[in-house]
Amino acid sequence: MTAPATVPALDTLRAEAISALDAASDLDALLTWERAYLGPKGALTAFLRSLGNLPADQRPEAGRSANALKIELQATFSGRHADVERSAIADRLAAEALDVTLPGRPHPIGTVHPISAMIDELSDIFALMGFRTVYGPEVETGHYNFDLLNIPADHPARDVWDTMIVDTGAGGPEIVLRTHTSPMQARTMETSTPPVRVVVPGRCYRYEAQDSSHEWMVHQLEGLAVDERITMADLKGVLAELARQLFGPTRRIRFRCDFFPFVEPGVDFAVDCAICDGTGCRVCKHTGWLEMGGAGMVHPDVLRGVGYDPERYTGFAFGLGIARMVMMKYGVDDVRAFAAGDLRFLRQFASLTA
Ligand code: PHE
Asked: 1, 16, 119, 323: least buried by Cβ within 10 Å?
């Protein structure tokens, strides 16, 4: 394969090398060229190696010419390499050009959900009355959701809460999605000593058909106060203060008898309608009153169940529907709007975002 190491052969090699170098238009092609001509297995190296085969008198000239060619090809190669590299950079800069004077793309900032905003507002109002905000599990045991609340298994009152059951409890504890925030009454009392004052906002779940006033997932806010000498008057005072903070200073509240197994006496409570000042309108369905939730004095059995002495301690508890508070305050008439994810609805509450 080795060409005879003669000066004319060198001329041919030079012509070939120069035209191949001209044709190499990118960095890959250039490196291939470098290997083919200047590399350890390249044509020029092969030529230099074969010098020994020449008659002694021809060797010096052939050697000089070959070295001169090597220097020439190296110089031409590095010039060409630099050109190709420069134009590769120029191409890339052109392709990735960025016009920094263009206006940026807007990143829309979300707003606080009206339910979350109401939870914050309620927590603030209750904090001023000395209530701590605490949170509890949404997946609950039947023990906390029912038993400790004076609703034993097989008691008909258990059916009042249409329960989503996670585990029926064959051979273990019954597990449910909590149907109300009331299980946190027992959980809180179990881990503290009076005085107890907490509010508990959170999601609750009910196996329920949806309509404009029913959702299978609802937000409640539980309230609990236990101490010596707590009376129904304290409950009234706290709820009246809540109604005034939320709906205006002239609001009045109403208690009516109601039954919940974990309170005695039990009531439902309502606030007079702020829209019509209690005279009757569309929002209060012409009753003058808006229902806020259930409440009552903590049942002695519940106190006993968590190890409190009902002779010494008394307490009140209440449960509010949080969506209802938003609906009353802003005149929303379909509870499904809160979870529907329609931004046109949600953005109307943007001003509540702190
Ligand atoms: N937990 C009750 C419900 O969801 C409401 C309630 C709470 C009633 C506290 C009385 C006391 O229906």
From this structure: 1
Among candidate residues 34, 60, 95, the one where a domain is terminated? 95
Q: Report the predicted TM-score, pTM, of the whole model to 2 decimal places.
A: 0.71
CATH number at residue 205: 3.30.930.10
Catalytic site includes residue 58: no
Q: Distance between alpha carbon 335 and the CA centroid of its chain, in Å?
A: 23
Residues 53-95 pLDDT 10s: 888 888 888 889 889 989 999 999 999 999 989 998 999 999 9
Q: Pick from 160, 164, 199, 157: which is nearest to 178 by CA?
A: 164
Tokens of 226: 């236990």
Contact 315, 298 (CB under 8 A): yes
- For residues 20 and 153, membership in a common domain is answered with no
State the Cα–Cα distance between residues 133 and 354, nearest whole angstrom.
19
* 317 close to ligand 1 (CB < 6 Angstrom): yes
Smallest CA separation from ligand 1 atom 8, residue: 294
In the set 24, 225, 263, 326, the catalytic residue is 263
